[in-house]
Specification:
Largest sheet: none
Strand content: under 5%
Distance between the termini: 41 Å
Number of helices: 19
Order of helices and strands: HHHHHHHHHHHHHHHHHHH
Helix content: over 70%
Shape: globular
Number of strands: 0
Length: about 375
């Protein structure tokens, strides 16, 4: 998730700075200047559609479904019915539609992650949308407003690697809680900044970016951790619809508030809304983590007794066995280490294997 957000940074930062150049191009074609960015967006989306239609082979969703079915013990084509029944019994109910539907606790986690993302989206959109309008109304040009938005967008996406590392290390709950104080601080700074000071407004929007990034990445991690790889498309699509609707509501509401009470009003109103992420994220007990592989067998997910023992000792929830096996299969198939191992010679045997094992245990030798 962090890598995807980081990859969008060049386009997101460059886009607002192209408002004036593409506006001149549109004007030379007899089109209003403000229509220039929309023409550029149409061309970019068309090119993206062509790339997505041609390059991703096989489809990542189909690949995830196939790996999940294989990890769950789905029979190969041509297997007889008796073998199929045995494998269905061995997976203990992890096959079929029930594996795709999250448990009640999982649905709660999906609601928590979605709420965190919607809160951060509304606050960010409400402040960001009105800042260029506020700047243009106080004598700033489109170039200055575009530069401020570019700085803001860069601050939204550039912290993604750090955010992903924090989510992996300390969990999505704590990162979601960290977004709570950042967003009100950015709103207060924007409300108190002089209208004629572009650097002050830019600093407020730069502070707004990491707050949004923390909420989006942590909320996405909370949602995806409780969903199996082959059943994430529909919930993620619904979450995206919710984010889009929240952005539309936040944008329209901020315009009405600014027209009535001025620019500082939505900036200050976003603070209490952002702080709601703290109690919401606090209701999420632990960041879901996969069960480590069982060294005594082929994997921890295939030993439900041992998995339950780990859960009882650590107090942490674990995702489903099907999800564990599918994620390990994806990582094993496409990791750099696995590709390098395939190029090496077969593992050593006999005395050579014992020497290698001793050397790994004692690197000083």
């Amino acid at each position: 998730m962090s890598a995807v957000l980081l990859a969008t940074t060049p386009g997101a930062v460059t886009g607002p700075m192209l408002v004036t150049p593409v506006g001149e191009v549109a004007h030379s074609w007899g089109v209003p200047r403000l229509a220039g960015p929309f023409l550029l967006a149409a061309a970019a989306f068309t090119a993206t559609a062509v790339v997505l239609a041609c390059l991703p082979r096989p489809d990542p969703l189909r690949l995830a479904q196939a790996l999940t079915a294989r990890a769950a013990g789905a029979p190969d084509e041509g297997a007889d019915s008796s073998e199929e029944e045995k494998k269905k019994k061995n997976v203990a109910g992890t096959d079929g539609p029930s594996a795709r539907a999250p448990a009640p606790a999982g649905r709660h986690d999906v609601a928590v992650g979605t709420t965190v993302m919607i809160l951060t989206q509304v606050v960010m959109i409400g402040i960001m949308t009105m800042t260029p309008v506020h700047m243009l109304a106080h004598g700033h040009g489109a170039r200055a407003a575009g530069l401020v938005i570019s700085l803001h967008v860069g601050a939204m996406f550039l912290p993604s690697p750090l955010t992903g590392l924090l989510v992996d290390r300390i969990g999505g709950r704590w990162v979601a809680c960290a977004s709570g104080p950042l967003l009100p601080a950015a709103g207060a700074l924007a409300a108190l900044s002089p209208a004629g000071s572009a650097p002050a407004l830019g600093a407020a929007l730069v502070l707004l970016g990491p707050g949004w990034n923390f909420g989006l990445v942590s909320g996405t991690a909370i949602v995806t951790d409780v969903l199996p790889p082959d059943g994430r498309a529909t919930p993620q699509g619904l979450v995206d619809v919710g984010l889009a609707a929240a952005g539309a509501v936040g944008s329209l509401a901020s315009g009405l508030v600014v027209a009535r009470d001025g620019y500082p009003a939505p900036a200050l109103m976003g603070g209490p809304a952002a702080l709601l992420a703290l109690p919401v994220a606090g209701r999420f007990p632990h960041h879901a983590r996969a069960v480590p592989p069982d060294r005594s067998g082929e994997g921890g997910a295939k030993n439900p007794t041992r998995a339950e023992g780990r859960q009882g000792l650590s107090g942490r929830r674990t995702i489903s066995a099907t999800t564990n096996r599918a994620q390990r299969a994806l990582a094993k198939r496409y990791s750099l280490a696995s590709r390098m191992r395939r190029r090496r010679s077969p593992p050593a045997s006999g005395a050579r294997a014992e020497a290698v094992a001793h050397q790994r245990k004692d690197p000083c030798c």
